[in-house]
Design goal:
Layout (H helix, E strand, L loop, with lengths): L1 H49 L4 E6 L4 E7 L11 E4 L6 E3 L6 E2 L3 E8 L2 E3 L1 H5 L6 E5 L8 E7 L9 E6 L7 E5 L26
Antiparallel strand pairs: 1-2, 1-8, 2-4, 2-5, 3-8, 6-7, 6-9, 9-10, 10-11
């Protein structure tokens, strides 16, 4: 009986030592993955700032992968505004060189907001595996993008989360920890200058 008590005490002590470290490891992995997504979004912002080429942000639900695409025809210029589509990528898009895709292993996508409009994650994940593609065309103001990631092993909107924001006027994305996905507050959208965009006659 004494030996059993000693063994139980030892197991309790070991659990008290190991579990916090194990949970801390998962927190660090989720934080590192969120930072990697932030770097990908910063690459998107820098490309949109410095280049006049069409660019797209793609999320593949089955692969749980974020990636950046560019138009295969680098000389094509479109005047269409930024648009979000749920469709497989067409032949006119190809992976952006020197930018590695990010596969979510320690986190999962909880929210995606484009210019204040929430894209239902159920729509993205439930579209028969078709990738969600947000396209940006040159000559138009880009939208504000907010992404929320939660730890893979935690369920529910009350779980701690990471928010990645890419403002419409800045080339660098920012990441911060938030108490939960329920407390997520997307960035405020900024109005478009119709005069600067050459659409002075368009109604406000």
């Amino acid at each position: 009986m004494v030996e059993m008590i000693v063994v139980i005490i030892l197991i309790g002590v070991l659990a008290a030592i190991v579990l916090p470290r194990f949970m801390g490891t998962r927190d660090r992995a989720a934080g590192a993955e969120s930072e990697t997504v932030r770097q990908l979004m910063s690459s998107l912002g820098q490309r949109l700032t410095l280049s006049g080429q069409g660019v797209a942000l793609q999320f593949e639900p089955e692969a749980r992968r974020f990636s950046l695409l560019m138009r295969a025809d680098s000389g094509s210029q479109s005047t269409a505004s930024a648009s979000a589509t749920v469709k497989p990528s067409s032949d006119e898009w190809k992976p952006m060189p020197l930018v590695r895709p990010v596969v979510l292993a320690s986190t999962r996508l909880s929210a995606l907001v484009v210019d204040g409009r929430s894209i239902p994650v159920t729509t993205i994940n439930g579209n028969a595996g078709a990738p969600y593609q947000l396209e940006f065309q040159p000559g138009r103001a880009r939208p504000v993008i907010s992404i929320v990631l939660v730890r893979e092993d935690l369920a529910g909107e009350d779980a701690p989360a990471y928010q990645i924001d890419l403002p419409s006027s800045e080339p660098v994305a920012k990441v911060r920890s938030i108490a939960s996905a329920r407390t997520f507050m997307p960035l405020q959208t900024r109005g478009e200058d119709l005069d600067a965009a050459g659409r002075r006659d368009q109604a406000w």
